Amino acid sequence: MKIAVDVISGDNPPEELISGVCHYISKYKDSVIIIGDEERIKKKLLLHPYERRYIDIVHTTEIITMNESPAEAYRKKKNASVILAAQLVASKEATGFFSPGNTGAALAAALFEIGKIKNVSRPAIAAVLPNIKSSTILIDAGANTECKPHFLVEFALMADVFCKKVLKLENPRVGILSNGEEDEKGSDFTKKVFELMKDIPMHFIGNVEGYDLFNGSVDIVVTDGFTGNIALKTAEGVSKTVFTLLKNEIQKSIFSKIGALFLKDNFKNLKKKLDANEYGGAPLLGIDGNVIIGHGSANAKATFNALRTLRFMDQFNLNKEIESAFSKLPETSDS
Prior knowledge:
CATH architecture of the largest domain: 3-Layer(aba) Sandwich
Order of helices and strands: EHEHHEHHEHEEHEHEEHHHEEHH
CATH class of the largest domain: Alpha Beta
Strand content: 15-25%
Oligomer: single chain
Low-confidence stretches: none
Number of domains: 2
Largest sheet: 11 strands, mixed
Radius of gyration: 21 Å
CATH superfamily of the largest domain: Isopropylmalate Dehydrogenase
CATH topology of the largest domain: Isopropylmalate Dehydrogenase
Strand order of the largest sheet: 3-2-1-4-11-10-5-6-9-7-8
Number of strands: 11
């Protein structure tokens, strides 16, 4: 197994992500292809002579920035790091790739260079969110702003396979994000999705609301990419706001500061659970190769965790399992 890593598309310097690559290699002894500025990569690897044996380098300094149009940049920047990463997967030189930064660029590169799994209509981003018990998969978290009802059925099925094979959940609970839990709630669109979901062999629990993302009552929350991305960004914003407010309150008096010292380990554990770097990134499901899209701020820890998840995706033949599940789907109609 060999994984491709784009180390120059994110906000952090490539040396930070290379540290994560080396940590991964030291633990799993897998081969990695690093895409980026060869001179900087080699200089960093002088500090890691053992891990260097497992690393190949593909040189480029071209990136697709966060404020570029993914479609236009994909056409014009053929040597962009994320495109080269996808090409390595398409040519079977790598089993998967990780790239932080421009989500649309990673999606375009994966879709047009690698292609979809057979019978999959649209790939979808599966964001992993912490809840009070473990984690919740939110799908789609931004790949498809316009959806047909049967797309959401496919998203749910891909996430169901991911949870069973990679996260080892025996019978994940699947819900549709709606404005109420009652069966009759929702828009015309979500009501159509609801009817289709009842015929799919999975643990469908019906409609769920926004707070269910975090209370541990559901394992997979399915929605369109527009709504899902808003939910994801809202969750990130609330998390940052709560920590800022808490920090401000602690600073108000000597007594609160002393109390905070006694809770230092608790705060550290909470911060770790809410840290996006603990999850590495979001798997892009439905692509005929393993792909994880990282946050622009991805660090060494995020890189290590992303590579570990890519390893599990390959180890458990995730895409073959998804293809098999789709071959058993009943014919659906959006009419």
